[in-house]
Design a protein that fits this description.
The chain has no helices and nine strands. With 122 residues, it is an all-beta fold.
């Protein structure tokens, strides 16, 4: 079974064939989009990526938990992960760029941001 995901926004540049796609329903609580970590559902493995039309085809795996009847809505949060066999070391290089967005109009506090890197030329 194949699932076709069509997006309104540009696809993440890191998304590639073989990645695992996950989704979770999102609700609004306290003015924020939130989700319960226990509601994250694995959709399957990316079979193809069409960046021009913003379409991702996902190969749905065998479904022992019975999620086959669940359908995504426009408000669901879709994410992807790389297979564990990729990127088994830390980030390599000398430069990293990070963008953090807050969709709230109220002041918030960021507790921590951290990373693990390895210099690539040593």
């Amino acid at each position: 079974m194949q699932i076709k995901l069509t997006f309104d926004q540009e696809l993440n540049i890191s998304l590639s064939i073989g990645d695992i796609v996950w989704y979770t329903p999102v609700t609004i609580a306290g003015g924020y989009d939130v989700s319960d970590k226990s509601s994250i559902i694995k959709l399957g493995e990316v079979e193809s990526v069409d960046r021009n039309n913003k379409i991702v085809l996902v190969k749905k795996p065998h479904d022992p938990l019975g999620y086959a009847g669940i359908s995504l809505t426009q408000n669901d949060f879709v994410m992807f992960s790389k297979p564990n066999s990729f990127n088994t070391s830390s980030i390599k290089g000398y430069y990293a760029k990070v963008r953090l967005d807050n969709n709230s109009t109220e002041k918030i506090e960021l507790f921590a941001v951290s990373s693990e890197i390895s210099e690539s030329s040593k």
